[in-house]
Write a structure and sequence with these properties.
two-stranded parallel ribbon, 7-stranded mixed sheet, globular
Length: 250
């Protein structure tokens, strides 16, 4: 059976960036059996209409009636991938829809999953990684989160706890939903990426990182991250992960 790949794209008002990204993903995955799940989190622009006009056969649009946050969009996308996959060895990719993550890294990540890894993270903190165009305060927060979580919730081989560009073995995600149920992704904001990672680590998932070239200057839409809200939710998540066993076990 041909390798089945799901690409989950949570999106909110990404406009032309989403269209360009879809075309690149189609090019990269042309030799695979792939499905692109565009999770529209209540967009108010015409980006989804533009996607519909493309009539791409591999693209499925899943719409939220209102904006619910990144965590809910990822939950919707992962749930759809788990439901639709025909084989637990299928691979689910999650990436940003704003062209800051290059889809040309997907094939390398897929190969690492095939080699035996359960989770592959595109990392900003590995040799060969580069970050271009990210505001200094965001860069500082990313490094701070890396150091704090590595200190209090260490995961072997992992430095980047917050980057949203990852590849997962779909069978692992299915087991995570069975274990944690609705609490698998309990954070609605950007801290959901930390939440997912910690819970999968407690399931003994094998994880690895690949260097990412983050091109933030390509981002055309305003950032959706609420800085203070993200800091607060991340610290709350850290507290739960360190002191409360129920965060780790269903």
């Amino acid at each position: 059976m041909q390798q089945q790949i799901f690409v989950v794209l949570p999106t909110y008002n990404e406009g032309e960036s989403l269209i360009a990204l879809l075309k690149e993903i189609e090019d990269v995955l042309s030799t695979y059996a792939f499905h692109i799940l565009v999770v529209d989190d209540g967009s108010t622009d015409d980006s989804i209409w533009q996607v519909q006009q493309l009539q791409l056969p591999h693209v499925q649009i899943i719409a939220h009636e209102r904006n619910q946050g990144l965590g809910e969009a990822i939950r919707t996308g992962i749930s759809a991938a788990v439901t639709q996959c025909q084989d637990d060895n299928a691979i689910t990719i999650i990436m940003d829809s704003d062209m800051t993550h290059t889809p040309y890294l997907i094939e390398r990540m897929v190969n690492l999953v095939k080699e035996g890894n359960d989770v592959v993270i595109a990392s900003r903190f590995r040799y060969g990684s580069r970050v271009k165009g990210l505001p200094l305060h965001r860069l500082f927060l990313s490094h701070a989160a890396s150091w704090v979580f590595r200190l209090f919730v260490p995961i072997p081989c992992i430095k980047d706890y917050t980057c949203g560009y990852r590849a997962y073995k779909t069978g692992l995600l299915k087991k995570a939903f069975e274990k944690y149920h609705a609490d698998f992704i309990s954070e609605s904001g950007f801290s959901c990426m930390i939440d997912i990672l910690i819970k999968l680590a407690h399931m003994d998932a094998i994880m690895v990182e690949v260097p990412l070239i983050l091109r933030y200057e390509r981002k055309q839409s305003p950032s959706k991250m609420k800085i203070m809200r993200t800091i607060f939710s991340s610290l709350r998540l850290l507290y739960r992960a360190v002191f409360f066993k129920e965060h780790r076990e269903a």
